[in-house]
Design brief:
TIM Barrel; eight-stranded parallel β-sheet; 2 domains; alpha/beta
């Protein structure tokens, strides 16, 4: 039912396929983030048109709204949102821990971490909830997502090594409990490797997570892209990838910008997700083959050329920079839709070219080509 096939390698960069009950996922893959059962400013039809293979759902947000009971009555998350391709749901752990830092608005919420689980106040009504590893698995089993994540503890940057080690060990104990709680056979579980920003802790985390290898379909690298320097993120990613088994997919959670994805692919990562392309689209930052454009800028006011002559998306086939700027400055809803179509297509086309380059042994050439694009500001 679930299989991962490694097809080709170019250095450490990997080309593979993940077989799921809802379709095949070509890797390396970028997964658009559908936090609340939808990718913001997009329709599922548009996602399919631009080549999305899999989307993410967020356990924390879907648990709060519309709630597990509604999704259960609908027949699961696929039916509720009318998406027949694969879905990955995260554990909600990152969102819970983000609450304590006030990342959902300015208000900081109470978060209490114990061995049993996490007690927290939600960001909507301030109600108190309690997530255990078992409950998080149960919620995701009700959702029926193809790939599920265990509850883990994501530490902030900076943190102390002592606390990072405690969080690592708690994550491992919670993984053990998550495995025991899992009942559905038509879902697969990934282990999450923590260890923060220390090489020895990351190695320890891999070693301890590998004890559960027979129960895990793949491995996630968590706790990165939380404010640490890029060099640290790349270094920790490489440390972990060098120790993970070749025959299972690797997922770098919450990453990232195009340059971060390319660096991680070079180090052996297969799966990515991030809100960057959709969030940037809604603030007017657009990725193109010529460079990065701020569509709000007055210099595009009378530029009637296409946004990106090398892009095949609906936006670029039909509209000029001048029109896109007009929509954005007029705060038309269509501006966010058209910008999001383009940014996601840029990401998905980049991944298509990455897969082809790995097969042909040209990944480094392609990487440099894209790095030049995304670092140029127009």
């Amino acid at each position: 039912m679930f299989e991962f096939h490694l097809i080709a390698k170019d250095g450490k960069a990997r080309r593979g396929k993940i077989y799921t009950p809802h379709g095949v996922i070509e890797t390396p893959v970028f997964m658009p983030v559908g936090t609340q059962g939808t990718v913001k400013a997009m329709l599922h039809k548009l996602l399919e048109e631009i080549g999305a293979q899999i989307i993410l759902g967020n356990t924390y947000h879907l648990f709060l709204r519309p709630g597990t009971e509604i999704i259960d009555k609908a027949g699961g998350l696929h039916k509720f949102i009318s998406w027949d391709k694969p879905i990955l749901t995260d554990s909600g752990g990152y969102q819970v821990f983000s609450l304590a830092k006030g990342r959902f608005g300015n208000r900081k919420a109470k978060v209490k971490i114990t061995e049993e689980g996490v007690e927290f106040q939600d960001h909507l009504q301030g109600d108190t909830h309690f997530f255990t590893p078992e409950k998080v698995v149960e919620i995701q089993e009700i959702f029926g997502s193809d790939i599920i994540m265990p509850l883990d503890e994501c530490v902030e940057y900076p943190t102390t090594k002592e606390y990072a080690k405690q969080a690592l060990e708690r994550t491992i104990r919670w993984l053990d409990r998550s495995i025991s709680a899992k009942k559905r056979e038509n879902q697969v579980l990934f282990g999450i490797v923590q260890g923060a920003f220390w090489e020895d802790l990351r190695k320890e985390a891999v070693q301890k997570t590998l004890q559960f290898d027979e129960f895990l379909f793949g491995y996630s690298i968590g706790g990165l892209s939380v404010g640490e320097p890029k060099e640290v993120m790349y270094e920790m990613t490489e440390v972990v990838c060098n120790l993970l088994p070749e025959n299972k997919p690797r997922y770098l959670m919450g990453v990232g910008k195009p340059e971060d994805i390319l660096e991680a692919v070079e180090r052996g990562v297969d799966m990515f997700d991030c809100v960057v392309p959709t969030r940037n689209a809604r603030t007017g930052t657009l990725y193109t083959s010529q460079g990065v454009i701020d569509i709000r800028h007055a210099k595009w006011k009378e530029d009637f050329s296409t946004l990106d002559p090398e892009c095949d998306c609906y936006t670029c086939r039909n509209f000029s920079k001048a029109y896109l700027r007009h929509l954005f400055t007029a705060e038309e809803i269509s501006a966010y839709v058209l910008n999001t179509i383009h940014n996601l297509r840029f990401y998905l086309k980049m991944m298509e070219e990455v897969r082809k380059a790995i097969e042909e042994g040209n990944f480094k050439i392609l990487k440099e080509k894209y790095l030049e694009k995304v670092k140029r500001k127009l």
